[in-house]
Amino acid sequence: MASSLTKESPGQGTPAGGKTFFGHPRGLATLFMTEMWERFSFYGMRALLTIYLLSGGPDAEKGVRDGGLGFDLATTTAIYSIYMALVYLLTMPGGWLADRLWGPRKTVAIAAIVIMAGHLSLAGPGQGFFFLGLLLVALGSGLLKANISTMVGHLYDGPNDPRRDGGFTIFYIGINVGAFLAPLIIGTVGEKHSWHLGFALAAIGMGIGLAQFLWGTKHLSPESNKVPTPLTAEERNSWLRKGLTWLIIAAVFYGVVVFTGHFTLNWAMIPLGALGILIPAAVLFRIKRDKDLSQGDQAKVSGYIWFFVAAAAFWMIYDQGGSTVQAFGTTKTSGELLGISFPSTWFQSLNPVFVMALAPVFAWLWLWLNRKGKEPSTILKFSAGLFLIGVSFFFFLMPLAMASDGTKVSPMWVLGIYFIQTVGELCLSPVGLSLTTKMAPVKYASQMMGIWFLANTAGDSVTSLLSIGGVDMSGSRAILVEAILAALAGLAIYMFRKNVRARMGEIH
User: Fold this and answer.
1) Read out DSSP for 411-447?
2) Is 139:107 a contact under the CB 8 Å cutoff?
3) Spatial CB neighbours of 463, under 8 Å, sequence gap ≥ 6
4) Distance between alpha carbon 292 and the CA centroid of its chain, in Å?
5) What is the mean pLDDT of residues 455-465?
6) What residues have CB less than 8 Å from 358, skipping those under 6 apart?
7) pLDDT tens-place string over residues 396-449
8) Does the pLDDT at position 180 exceed 50?
9) Low-confidence winner among 156-165, 211-220, 392-401 (lowest mean pLDDT)
10) Which of 55, 349, 43, 353 is nearest to 199 (CA)?
């Protein structure tokens, strides 16, 4: 993206007389490009993931090139969901490592190296390289996701800097530009030419992002290089002992399972899926039981749990856009529209396009309604988000029925599903981020943002466990049940809005 460089008075991260990026600190360009290339690699790999797992298997479309791992759709959905759950689960240790050990800047550099190594491993042959690569990409993404937004905040003179919101908006554009381009480039190469070359392109993208990040660190705030609360020597030794102990226990346990010939993927996926539900529940329970919190903070945490559960239900359906919906788009949908043929991975570019088109409209709409005193409450926006995600799966039932006899349906049906889901996302996701910062007790101000991401972990973990348990997540019965539950959850939040609002204190 071409930068607009102008002279401006200095702010945090902007040296005197230095150039700016669209009126913002020059470091924003560095972080914009880093995030854009990281999202390019992440969404490019994600666009290929479901198809690669299915390729050569019993549920793959005959027109899809072989050479993939040949799993059935249930196993594919479980693997995909576990991977997504891990990405969000690892944001919490990613934030902890930056706060206590490396600082945000070093953590992001390490994360980029880990991500690049993960994509290169994915480009290697066989399941061993694949699962190692998947783990490395999830680990690196968790490290990076937790810290790069923090570094954007460091560029400004505190929360009241008038440029701050605009800076995050520009940064958000970088996310969606990378997410839009990745399926078109990486997806096309991987699906039509070579799976492993596609994964290698994702590694190259992250390599470009890392190179320009290291080159542009001179433009970042010195704050991003600091470790806020460094570990003491005693704490470091304690964490090392605990980590090594659990590592040895896991290595011995799984060594025995493998040696005795009992190992299957479920030995890894079931514990990870269970942890994806238990860890968010334990974190919220620990905060709720904290006796240092005031009665008002306790009430806010209780109210927040409602929103957390609602968000988990939302993301459970939404994240199936990369598994269940993508698989349908690959196997049951025509790959041609208006005489133009296209790879099914291109479906993954729809959401970022819709986000970029609709986000400014929603921002304007909320402001316009606010000036008229008619802006919907947070509770109503959450209800609308859940209702719409349910509607997207009610809508999904129609092309499912049409394709049941082997007919290839129009890709417009898939476009419609992603459009409805994006509208629901714009009702729920930005509001949830804002609400998290407002309802967080001061003691847990930083941790609560990580807890918000754990809603994705919980939702994806439920999907994985249901798939492992034999539930056909792509079947009309499961889709109908999910649609009904989402709609009922939205209705329940709306019906109990007075109870929830009473726990929110002054927040409306």
Assistant:
1) HHHHHHHHHHHHHHHHHHHHHHHHHHHHHS-GGGTTH
2) no
3) 77, 78, 81, 316, 319, 320, 323, 473
4) 32
5) 96
6) 422, 423, 426
7) 999 999 999 888 999 999 999 999 999 999 998 877 877 776 777 877 766 777
8) yes
9) 156-165
10) 43
Residue closest to 138 by CA, chosen among 67, 200, 210, 89: 89
Beta bridge partners, 20, equal 6, 25
Contact call for residues 101 and 93 (beta carbons, < 8 A): no
Neighbours of 421 (CB within 10 A): 28
Q: How far apart are the first and last CA of the chain?
A: 38
Longest dimension (CA), the chain: 69
Q: What's the angle, vertex CA 482, arms to CA 480 and CA 486, rounded to 5?
A: 120
Average pLDDT value for the chain: 87
d(CA 408, CA 428): 33
pLDDT category of residue 1 using cuts at 50, 70 and 90: very low
- Residue in the block written with tokens 């409805």: 420
- The pLDDT of residue 65: 66
pTM of the predicted protein model = 0.90
Rg (the chain; Cα; Å) = 23
At residue 27's C-alpha, the angle toward residues 25 and 33, to 5°, is 125
| Nearest residue to 48 via CA among 346, 314, 317 | 346
Beta strands in 438-497 (DSSP E): none
Query: Which sign, positive or negative, has the C-alpha torsion 71, 75, 78, 79?
Result: negative
Contact 106, 235 (CB under 8 A): no
What is the distance between the alpha carbons of residues 274 and 108, in angstroms, rounded to a whole number? 28
Higher pLDDT, 324 or 6: 324
